Amino acid sequence: MATTTGSIQQATKELRPTGKCCGWPSAHTSRAFATAHIAKRNYDKSGLTTLTKDMLIYSTFLTAYATGWARVEAGEHYPSQVFIGAAYGNFLSSVLYDSTESLDILPMISIEPDFMMIGVHYEF
Q1: Is 39:32 a contact under the CB 8 Å cutoff?
Q2: How far apart are CA 11 and CA 18, in angstroms?
Q3: I need a surface site. Which of 38, 51, 53, 118 has the fewest CB within 10 A?
């Protein structure tokens, strides 16, 4: 996520509210929403009770929304940059999840500030 988001940021070079380069889309927000989306899909498949699943899903997405809002409040991003970051994170994680759902593997994403690693986990 961070690699593709960083590539988009470098290609567009849209300024942040601080005047620094490369704020579109928000990488923090895209990572937060990608994580929340994959977690939601996993919660849906778990054997948890409906109440527990709902509480986990709401708290996970609340954290993602708070991440986006914090980026705006900190003056690091415009709301449009955060909105596109959230949409991009949801989209990319959905594509990744759906493309591996029928396989007997689990998608894994490691997201760091400077890179992202996408992999799969298979248990024998």
Answers
A1: no
A2: 19
A3: 51
The rounded distance, in Å, linking the Cα atoms of 100 and 21 is 35
Specify the higher pLDDT residue, 117 or 95.
95
Contacts of 88 (CB under 8 A, 6+ apart): 5, 8, 25, 30, 33
Instruction: Determine the residue type at 81.
Output: Q
Predicted structure pTM score: 0.79
CA pair distance 86, 91, nearest whole angstrom? 9
Residues 6+ apart with CB under 8 A from 3: 115, 116
- With tokens 């990744």, the residue in question is 96
Q: What is the mean pLDDT of residues 51-61?
A: 95
If we measure between CA atoms, which residue out of 29, 35, 27 comes closest to residue 114? 27
